[in-house]
Amino acid sequence: MKFFIDTANLKEIQEAYDLGVLDGVTTNPSLMAKEGIKGDANVRAHYKAICNIVDNNVSAEVIATDFENIIKEGKELAKIDDKIVVKVPMIKDGVKAIKKFSSEGIRTNCTLVFSAGQAILAAKAGASYVSPFIGRLDDISQDGLELIAQIRQIYDNYGFDTEILSASVRHTMHLIQCAEIGSDVVTCPLNVITSLLNHPLTDSGLAKFLADHKKVNG
Ligand code: E4P
User: How far apart (Å, rounded) are the C-alpha atoms in residues 29 and 33?
Assistant: First the structure.
């Protein structure tokens, strides 16, 4: 399973990359705004800076919502670096744009997916990744993980190549259950990745090993 970090913060991206387990980055307009990145030139420079840290898979989201402008904006984003994956919302013109990008060899991430039907459309259009949002479904008392399982089954039934990129992952149990279900990718904040390190028996076990070593070696 691939790990993507869901942030536009360069320090956090570097920290996750340095851990040696990072396969990519997802951003969205809210995350870019959180970093105070504004204006086309600054946005592009920021995406380039992210690409300079990681090895591949940097999702850059279009702001346009009509076909022509999604294509124009997506092509400009794709030009920034070969690592860019154009992130396109699950709307009618977005699906059409994904089909066009796919036919031209431009990788896409279909975002804001909340149903199996939307995931089928994304796959049929040739999206490289589909992003179902687990946490936001949980927020409205629907089972986000159930959607991941449903999409996994549908994609396996038909051999769709689209990778399931579980998004809006809020805690380690989301991540672990995504792994059990067979999600291809999870994207989550840095603290979810680093929380995987934690276990009290690891801490107490290490303390005992070091204490025993010190008794004999001084
Ligand atoms: C996915 O690509 C989105 O950026 C993200 O996972 C949304 O997460 P949130 O629901 O925690 O904002």
Answer: 6
Which tokens is 121 given?
């459309």
17-38: pLDDT as tens digits: 999 999 999 999 999 999 999 9
CA of 7 to the centre of ligand 1 (A): 9
Residue (of 114, 211, 98, 208) closest to 162 by Cα position: 98
Q: Tell me, what amino acid is at 174? A: H
Token pair, residue 69, equals 């402008």
Tell me, in angstroms, the distance from the centre of ligand 1 to residue 202's CA: 31
- Ligand 1 atom closest to residue 31's alpha carbon, by position in its atom list: 4
Q: How far apart are the first and last CA of the chain?
A: 43
Q: Which CATH superfamily is domain 2-217 in?
A: Aldolase class I (3.20.20.70)
Contact 83, 56 (CB under 8 A): yes
